[in-house]
Amino acid sequence: MRVRLKGINRVAKKLADGSSVTYYYAWKGGPRLPGKPGDPEFVAAYNAAVAEKAKQPSGTLQAVLNTYQDSPKFIDLAPRTRKDYIRHIKLIESEFGDFPLSALPDRRTRAEFLAWRDKLALKSRRQADYTFATFAAIMAWAADRGLILCNPCERPGKLYRSGRAESIWTQADETAFLKVAPPRIALAYLMAVWTGQRKGDLLRLTWSAYDGTHIRLRQSKTGRRVVIPVSNALKAALDEAAKDKKAVTILTTTKGTSWTIDGFNTEWQKARAKAKVTDLTFHDLRGTAVTRLALADCNEAEIATFTGHSLRDVAAILDAHYLSRDARLAESALSKREAHEAGTKTPN
What is the pTM of this model? Predict the structure, then answer.
């Protein structure tokens, strides 16, 4: 009798010679299993992994981490976010898996946790912040459910500060990029700069989401539904691409298949290098869209409705990252003031 093993995670990978191999894991983020499903060693390793996972080391942080990963809160995360969380959770487990929950209220615990974050920051401040933010989020979840008495990770502040205040795609950057980018990459650029959406959402966007005048999508990260009116420039590009559509998704490879993240990133970097556009990323197009909307006199509510940002996020982008050094905004403000005063002041 064949037994169905629950939760097996299959990962197919291409080898250098063009062939592919499938690896099996007990679950996403779980240990890799030897052999193939049905092999005695495979079943034995699976049962051992499940048994080990089932051991809830009560009274330790490992118990909280295990419980969290079995919760709807974790399971309902977007696949990419869940994958990132697993990577951070493994770091937390290796350092604090056996940490006693009874020690959490001790003031020295927070100092120990922060010291660990500072150690991670020696390699990457940004990744240290991400890992600790995951830690804090799990601890907050546990505190809300009474699994721990306090959260010593809350409000830690950030070590990494973005230096992307001037990371906006200028018209010159855009012209240089579109001049050399292949049509499929140019379309991705136009979709990003005219919609302000994230790369992953755009790569997954299907033709059914475009009705000729609007794009409708649900953002994978926030769950927000946005309805975006399509500009003339983007409409022309989409309508042209629709004449030869070969896949469900709008953005495709030269073979007419949907992109993988890695495949798209490779082609994007080639086009960016060819255009000699440096220090700018695809993600910067999201902020560029916000900036251009603001320069067109859109208010924060209009921008948030268009891009799917929260009002707070729009304000943060405009205040801290993009517009503070844009001379055109200052010139626009001066022009408005001069026009206003010219129309309201009375001669002496």
Answer: 0.58
